[in-house]
Amino acid sequence: EGNYKVIAVDYGNKYNILRMLAAAGLQVEVVPAWTSAGEILSRRPDGVFLSNGPADPRAVKGALELARGLLGKVPLMGICLGHQILGLAAGAECSRLKFGHHGCNHPVKNLLLNRIEITSQNHNYALGENSLPACLELTHRNLNDQTVEGIRHRREPMFAVQYHPEAGPGPHDSQYLFTQFTELMHR
Question: Is the CB of residue 84 less than 8 Å from the CB of residue 94?
């Protein structure tokens, strides 16, 4: 139970993400990856969460169409694969990293708050900073290799991070992101 109804699109969701969404006061319904934007919107959610998952985001059938169909219609949050899908849907490019980011203790700079967060990561792809369209703002940067770790849309209620704020055990520096998602729905 919660104050806002959130649909979580499952691309390989971690249970702890669902627990943290619920802890932020959200009522969470999980739907499979092949669910359409129309079907999700017909359920009248207050927000939609795009989960983490494996591999190349362009290989996830229907994911970009889903994200494009939701952008501007409902508040959106993405983690890891969900971050990449939202970035691609908004017009960014994504490519394979020479060396993937795996494990904990990855320093990420929150450019909005001017602070360092210690994060857990598990991905081989990243959005290209030079490909970010004008509608996207870079919000987080990896301090090891300067890659994109977070974005937000300048006009629509959407943000995403590449790392795992739900990691457990792991650093808790980024748990505020679940509250931030709730605040998007409160507006």
Answer: yes
How far CA 145 is from CA of 9, 73, 85, 106, 108, in Å, comes to: 29, 34, 21, 10, 10
Provide CB contacts within 8 A for 129, sequence distance 6+: 138, 146, 147, 148
Write the pLDDT tens digit of every residue in 80-136: 999 999 999 999 999 999 999 999 899 999 999 999 999 999 999 999 999 999 999
Question: For this structure, is 166 an active site residue?
Answer: yes
Residue 80 annotated to the active site: yes
**DSSP structural state of residue 81:** H
- 158: how many CB neighbours lie within 10 A of its CB? 28
pTM exceeds 0.90 for this model: yes
Catalytic residue among 80, 106, 117, 153: 80
**Of 123, 129, 166, 186, which is the active-site residue?**
166
Residues in the chain: 187
Determine which one of 106, 164, 183, 186 is catalytic: 164
Averaged pLDDT for residues 21-50: 97
What b-and-e string marks burial along 77-101, b requiring 16 or more CB atoms within 10 Å of the CB? bbbbbbbbbbbbbbebebeeeeeeb
Known catalytic membership, residue 149: no
- Strand ranges, E, within the chain: 4-10, 26-32, 47-50, 76-79, 94-110, 115-127, 136-142, 148-153, 158-161
What pLDDT shows up at residue 169? 63
